[in-house]
């Protein structure tokens, strides 16, 4: 019994000594250390410290740490976590000098979260809306053109989604539904591969439905816009 008591006392003494020697960092020291980790690309370690500081509720330090924490998550490709922290910064510090950064990064998170065209495009639509909010609120920001470019990329992904929907219905032999999607792509008036292929399938589908006038119209537009294309050459055997 005495042996166990001696061991217990020894453990308590060691624990007490360690506790006394444990350094308690000030907020400023935590920030310095977190910034050093961030600069070295040690984002997980930096995030841990920024997270601690963000809960201390010291206005200047809290705002800075919250934004930096979001940046850490973004650097680690944790885009959903980053977006939520950027939103927290926007809600908590709407008049902060760096709030434009949070709006831009939030939109960029949505874009990075978005799935390939074959899948659900909720985040793609959200990214367009978020970048538009950024543009409306900060029209003189240096990232204005970048925001527009991201909007264009997201919008093109939605067009790809329409085309792929049309192609899926074409393969399923639901020709009316396929035509609806192909026609939506064609109506945009773009000159690209999606428009070219949509015109091709539109002509084929109209032929299948014995709508020769509409089929010929699609073929003529295809031949005019993309002379020499393989799609036009394939259809020439049916129309010329």
Q: How would you describe this structure to a colleague?
A:
The longest helix has 28 residues. The termini are far apart. It is elongated, with a radius of gyration of 29 Å. About 6% of the residues have low confidence. The chain is mainly alpha-helical and 240 residues long. It has a domain of 68 residues. α2 packs antiparallel against α3. The chain is built from twelve helices and no strands.
How does the SSE layout of this entry go?
Layout: H1 2-21, H2 27-39, H3 43-54, H4 59-75, H5 79-92, H6 99-113, H7 122-137, H8 144-171, H9 175-187, H10 193-208, H11 212-225, H12 230-239
- What is the arithmetic mean of pLDDT? 91
Q: Tell me the overall shape.
A: elongated
Largest sheet: none
Roughly what percent helix? over 70%
Question: Unreliable segments (pLDDT under 50, ≥5 consecutive)?
Answer: 8-21
Give a count of the beta strands, DSSP E runs of length 2 or more. Answer: 0
Oligomer: single chain
Class computed from helices, strands and strand pairing = mainly alpha
| Beta-strand content estimate | under 5%
State the separation between the terminal residues, measured CA to CA: 105 Å
